[in-house]
Amino acid sequence: MADALAWVPPNVDLTTPSAARAYDALLGGAHNFEVDRAFARKAEKVFPGVAVSCQANRAFLRRVVQFLMRNGVRQFLDIGSGIPTVGNVHEVAQAIDPACRVAYVDNEAVAVAHSDLILQDNDNATIVQADVREPESILEAPEVRRLLDFDQPVAVLMLALLHFVPDSDDPAALVAPYRDALIPGSYLAITHATGDSRPTEMRALEKLYATSSNPAVARTTQWITGLFGDWELVEPGAAYVPEWQPDNHVDLPSHPEHYIFFGGLARKPTLPAVS
Question: Shortest CA distance to 161 belongs to which of 129, 193, 198, 130?
Fold first, then answer.
């Protein structure tokens, strides 16, 4: 067991579940602990389908990155990236163009440590330990600035992240500095937990997450849509993740609103010409 945990940073609490490790467990990943797997089982019990929702969120990530690649974006800032598992941003993007540059950001020590291991031989990807609530620490981080040129379009990804920011930290206001840092033609992708269609089960899930190291707050689909500001939403607009540009409509679930995650992808509009 000691050898198996040798990569885990010191002072990591292995007795309390974390959102990043529980998400990895719900995705079927291997970089989590029994406390996280037990938490994932409880989450599935109080909100049946939570694992499928997480997998749908992961599929949304793949489709978004593929869309961005088709539209010329080659720089990605993935905030709240979590523990790297199959289908991370750099895997999807660099399979298409190895020169794509990806900066990951997370505040969870295990996620950062494992990302370091995976990315150590990848000169076009990096991981920064920082908190979304401190935009300057991310946008001005030397590793981020080394990889990303903010004079060119950048895609900022905030998937399954902002529901971990409490109301007291004003998560909606936190998005603005990231939007402001990007030039026209850049993109912002967001997904966020909502309980609009399953409020009772979502309240039970929130109660469960309150026992973890990362309490979560579900918010309305209207509130989530507002996070994009005046940016131009890519078709089909803000939607439940299975509905966003599905690979094919045959596999589209009959009740996409039963999935936890709602969001979309938006493009920063070109500034109007000055007459």
Answer: 193
